[in-house]
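Lab notebook: predicted structure, single chain.

Context: the supervisor wants predicted structures on file for every construct in the current expression panel, including those that have not yet been purified. This is the next one on the list. No modifications to the sequence; it matches the entry in the shared construct table.
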Amino acid sequence: MIGTTISHYRITEKLGEGGMGVVYKAEDVQLDREVALKFLSPRSLGTDEEKARLVREAKSAASLNHPNVSTVYEIAEADGRTFIAMEYIEGESVAALLENDRLELEDVFDIAIQIADGLAAAHAKG
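Prediction complete. Output recorded below exactly as produced.
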């Protein structure tokens, strides 16, 4: 996928992969900004149920305006693949910090508080 253009996003690098999907860093060539694109995992082939779950995730996140929740720009489909375009946030993942054993207890508490604040905002929106 790296180097390809999906809709108006040019994919520049793979950021990560989880159970549901793959996230890439991309350049929004229309608005000249970096974004994160989340696609359903190629292994899953994007069943209707998984697509519906991705759409629910996008709608839920898009309803929030909180500093600890990534902003969703759009959900779209291109070349038969459904994806979410969202705010790209520079930095290392918590997983990378844990892997390199670089988190002090104070940092762990700070991250946990930020996660809890984001979750509280999500729960407040239902």
